[in-house]
Amino acid sequence: MKKILLFLTLLLSVVTFSQETIKKDSLKTVTIESNRKGLKKSISGTANTTLVTSKELLKAACCNLAESFETNPSIDVNFSDALTGTKQIKMLGLTSPYIMITEENIPSVRGASQAYGLSFTPGTWVESIQITKGAGSVVNGYESISGQINTELIKPLKDIPFYLNVYGSTDSRFELNTHFNRKVSDYWATSLFVHGNARVSKNDMNDDGFMDNPLGKQINITNRWQYSNPETGWVSFLNLRYMNDYKQTGQLDFNPDRDRFTTNYWGSEISTERIDFSSKVGYVFKDMPYQSIGFQNAFSSHNQQSYFGLNQYDIKQQSYYSNLIFNSIINNTKHKFATGLNFTYDKYSEFVNLADVSRIDNSVGVFFEYTYDDSDKFSYILGGRLDYHNRLGTFFTPRLHVKYNPWDKAVIRFSAGRGKRAANIFAENQNLFASSRTFSILNTNGKIYGLDPEIAWNYGLSFTQNFKLFGMNADTTVDFYRTDFQNQAVVDVMNSPQQVLFYNLKGTSFANSLQLDFNLEIIKHLNLRTAYKYYDISTDYLSGSYQRPLQAKHRFFANIEYETHIVKKGRQWKFDYTVNWLGKQQLPNTRTNAAADSFPEFSPSFTVMNAQITRTFSSTFEMYVGGENIGNYRQDKAILGADNPFGSNFDTSIIYAPVFGQMYYAGLRFKIK
Amino acid sequence: MKNIVLGMMLLFVTLSAQAQDKKNKNAKYTIEVNGNCEQCKKRIEKAAFSVAGVKSADWNIDDHKLHLIINEEKCSVTDVKKAIAKVGHDTDEVKATDEDYEKLHSCCLYERK
Question: Which run of H or E residues covers position A238?
Fold first, then answer.
């Protein structure tokens, strides 16, 4: 209690400070109330954006952001490795480093937080998620290549006074979420979110002597303040967050105090501490509701100390991000524009097995984005930005999105754009430390670990038609996107099972993705969502051209939801079932290993099913039970060389399917309105 | 002293007179426009935007109110009403001709007052 008080006092002092010094806004903050529909695709929006509402997030275990895409076909959720249980996401077949991930339009998962960052945002904090396929907007930066995911957290002025969520599962994970909210005055409101989770016991379902999921604990606290004064036009947000996450994994008999950095048993510990502070100040001009100015500032410190067997990896990233944006019109609201300045500073203190690879990155950029909307059928967004970056050089980033409604309830969208980024090869591929692979960087002339920046162009075409089928609502979408890499920091696990090579792309690398969606309301309250996805992701490696490893060429997805009528006092049942079928996946090359320690060239195809039942007792109390992987499909061999973890064939990174079998969970949600 | 007071008064008077003379670049108006549907909304807003000086036009289907922001140096609210009447929609001040009204799509034939 004393600590909380201290915390609040600290915040108040920050508030007064920032009021004096900074005076501006939260710009493109899209606030959406919980909708009847969980996933919303707009017919009128210019970009190919799906809105995931909080209702959708209640359909799965959704403990954190990484797990909140299970019921959404635009994003594929994979497992990153057999140790940390961290879920990796992919969009258009590309992993999360190629996606711009923002929280309330401030870049959040980038650099050091790339591997585990999505698991650092608890699901209950989320109000909505916007998923944009393709190039994206220039306003937030130049890094996005395959798409953008923006998360909006619950807004203090709209929050309820108290919220409690308790969760427990058969893989011995427990979570507790509590939210407190107070309206301080007519204009000020504040929320305090406290999240804790822990996995308390060791599980080894496949009897390989290794834990299937790490032991862990996380404490995550955020305090948000919102100010909004409609009379003056001033709005503001202030956020402070503290997060501490600890994971321990490896062999069951591994005892960190006794066995750390020895070859007694193989084990790993990952500790992450993160502090975030962000502010937004905005002003909407009086008499001119279409004109506004906004100023965002964010500071974060991310410190990860870890080791994987004998491999030690420490990274600390201190970041500062600033964005000044001015929105207005040319003549009338059919012609809108946004223009402004960005500044980013990243200080990385990074040590790979004690080798110092620290660096400082900074960049400054200007952007201009013009939106034309004929308020009828046609609209487009044309954006460009010019950046100077100490490692990427001076470069221009163009982006275009076009929308046209050819006839009733139909929309065609086209997008094209360029993205450029510095690949943090160690942070992004740290799952490979949990193997006997040696890391080699083959280039020395580039400015990022010897490598050149990654540059890619992305083009996309999409068509959606809404219609009536037997009198019920239905819609279908066809999406095709292509990403062409001009340069890529190639991560090569196709050469040898004892090595991972990093080098600049020589030849071609591209990612084609085709997605067919069909959604139907079968009867009232019974909805079906289906998708088929085809990926052709090919890269020229030193040893030849291969499909990207651990990527299924064909995927099928279906989700059925059913809910009963809400009867008096808000009583209701909700049922949800999701099935994912994954075709065969290219596996990393393990041919030269002994037969017992090798995989075939391709994985088998398999099916994973999840289901959940929610019982709402009243508008303030509900309980849910669910199961993940209820078909109990397991990868039969998860860790190569598990019997000799310090030998040359050890590898935990080749995971194409669930390692843990069935998992059941239960939870409750309680609100005070 | 008297002179100063007089001088200041004069200054104020001229200033305020000037301010009144100066036309509002962001004048807000809410006018009533008759219509029915989503298609009417598009037609009404399109007509409003066709008048140079209209910065923002937003018609609400439920209460039939058109919210306008116009630059009075370039146009007047009557100009906007005329433009809207020309495409067949009655406004509080300017009414559409029967001929223009009958050109509307069948679902847009709102009940005339």
Answer: strand A234-250
Which token pair is B32? 């009533």
What is the distance between the alpha carbons of residues B58 and A619, in angstroms, rounded to a whole number?
A: 36
For chain A, the domain total comes to 1
Q: In this model, does residue B13 exceed pLDDT 60?
A: no
Q: d(Cα A84, Cα A67) in Å, to the nearest integer?
A: 14
B66 touches chain A (CB under 8 A): no
**Residue B2 located in a structural domain:** no
Is B28 within a domain? yes
Closest CA to A530 of A521, A539, A540: A521
For the ranges A176-185, A248-257, A270-279, B35-44, which has the lowest average pLDDT? B35-44
- pLDDT-derived band at B4 (thresholds 50, 70, 90) equals low
Decide if A290 touches B, using CB distance below 8 A.
yes
Q: Are A151 and A104 in contact (CB under 8 A)?
A: yes
Q: Provide the shortest C-alpha distance from residue A288 to chain B (in Å).
A: 7
Q: Tokens in use for A259?
A: 């066995």
DSSP conformation class of A490: E
pLDDT of res. A80: 59
Cβ <8 Å between B57 and A333: yes
**Is B89 part of any domain?**
yes
Domain count, chain B: 1
Which domain covers residue B59, as residue numbers? 24-108
Give the C-alpha separation, A29 to A31, whole Å: 6
* 3-state SS, residue B34: coil
Sheet harboring A75-79: ordered strands across?
A: A75-79, A87-91, A94-95
Question: Concatenated DSSP letters for A372-415?
Answer: EE-SSSEEEEEEEEEEEETTTEEEEEEEEEEEE--STTEEEEEE
Indicate which CATH number applies to the domain containing B94.
3.30.70.100
Q: Give the per-residue pLDDT at A324.
A: 96
pLDDT band at A582 (very low <50, low <70, confident <90, very high): very high
User: Distance (Å, rounded) from C-alpha A321 to C-alpha A344?
Assistant: 5
Chain A interface, best mutation among B23, B24, B44, B56, by max A CB count within 10 A: B56
Residue A332 is nearest to which of B28, B42, B54, comparing CB atoms?
Answer: B54
Output b/e per residue, A8-39; b: 16+ Cβ within 10 A. Answer: eeebeebbeebeeeeebbbbbbeeeeeeeebb
Cα–Cα distance for residue pair A115/A109, rounded to 1 Å: 9
Characterize A550-563 residue by residue with b for buried, 16 or more Cβ atoms within 10 angstroms of its Cβ, and e for exposed.
Answer: bbbbebbbbbbbeb
Residues of B in contact with A376 (CB under 8 A): 42, 46
Tell me the nearest-neighbour CA distance from A73 into chain B, angstroms.
31
Residues facing A325 on adjacent strands: A294, A340
CA distance B52 to A331: 8
Distance separating the N- and C-terminal Cα atoms of chain A: 24
Token couple for A549? 């490893």
CA A651 to chain CA mean position, Å: 25
Q: Which domain range does residue A101 map to?
A: 2-672
Buried b (16+ CB within 10 A) or exposed e, B54-71: bbbbbbeeeebebebbbb
Q: Is the pLDDT of residue A49 over 50?
A: yes
Evaluate whether residue B80 is within a structural domain.
Answer: yes
By residue count, chain B amounts to 113
Phi, psi dihedrals of residue A464, rounded to the nearest 5°: -125, 135
Decide if the complex's ipTM is over 0.90.
no
CB of B54 within 8 Å of a chain A CB? The answer is yes
Candidates A288, A289, A332; nearest CB to B49: A332
| Cβ contacts from A onto B, under 8 A | 31
CA distance B94 to A175: 64
Chain A residues within 8 A of B42 when measuring between CB atoms: 375-376
CATH number of the domain within which A374 lies: 2.40.170.20
